Amino acid sequence: MEIEADGSTLRLHGDCVAQTTEVVREALYAHLEEHPRATVDLADVEVVDLTSLRMIAAASRRAHLEGRRLALRGCRPSVRRLLAVSRLNRVVEVERQPVSA
User: Residue ranges of the STAS domain (predicted)?
Assistant: First the structure.
């Protein structure tokens, strides 16, 4: 897992799975401390599991309680389905993607 900060956006590269959750959690919470309106870009993430999505949902809830905002960007259809099936889409904000012509 590679993590790259670009302004208020945190870009993840690789697989976001249980084995990488701790590293992502630490980077995400540190990033939220610096950027009250943060975005996690998953466009370069091939695999996301439920453990990782639950961690992101917990960070999102915490951000909201602290008056901050956390949103996901670049979610693949499989990630959107997992968010819907797990009902984490009620907790995690997912940015809309423009419709291609």
Answer: 1-101
